[in-house]
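We give the chain.
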Amino acid sequence: MDGGSCNLIISYDITSEVFGEVNLSNRLAHSTSRHWLSLFKLRESLVVLDNVCEQDRIAYDVWMMEDGVSKSFTKVSTFSYNTEDSLIATEFRKSGQHIIEIVEGNRGHLVAYEPNSKSTDNLGIVGMFCSFHVHHYIETLSLLDQPTTHNELETQIKETDDQTMGNGS
């Protein structure tokens, strides 16, 4: 790199408490100033949106990580919208449909985009500009201050037993 910047993704595994790096393909890692990246989850895979803003068109390419292999992203679809206003991808349905906020002035409305047929369906949900927020909730049995493996649990039980026996003497 010649003094420029590079996009990257830093990961953190809360179970092992280890940081990692997800390497992006060269196209995603070295995007231009008219591009910006967004992260999503689709069907248990990491998805990167490469957003492109042009004079009369807004578009984004959807890149999906293959089988959790870092640096193995495949372009799975593209969405393009001719507008002077803006477009914000908010989430994906399990079916792969994109939920998109199309902003006109200070109002937005949600549409579902089907990448296979390239059709959009107005969802009939209208609100203020950028007022739509969707967040994934992932349920986990990992507790931050508790053992996470069977061996850790056995070790904690043994330490507790040893302390109890030591205190009773």
Residues 33 and 60 are 14 Å apart (CA to CA). The beta strands are 9-13, 18-22, 35-42, 45-53, 57-65, 73-82, 86-92, 98-104, 107-114, 119-128. The chain has a mean pLDDT of 75. Helices lie at 26-29, 150-168.
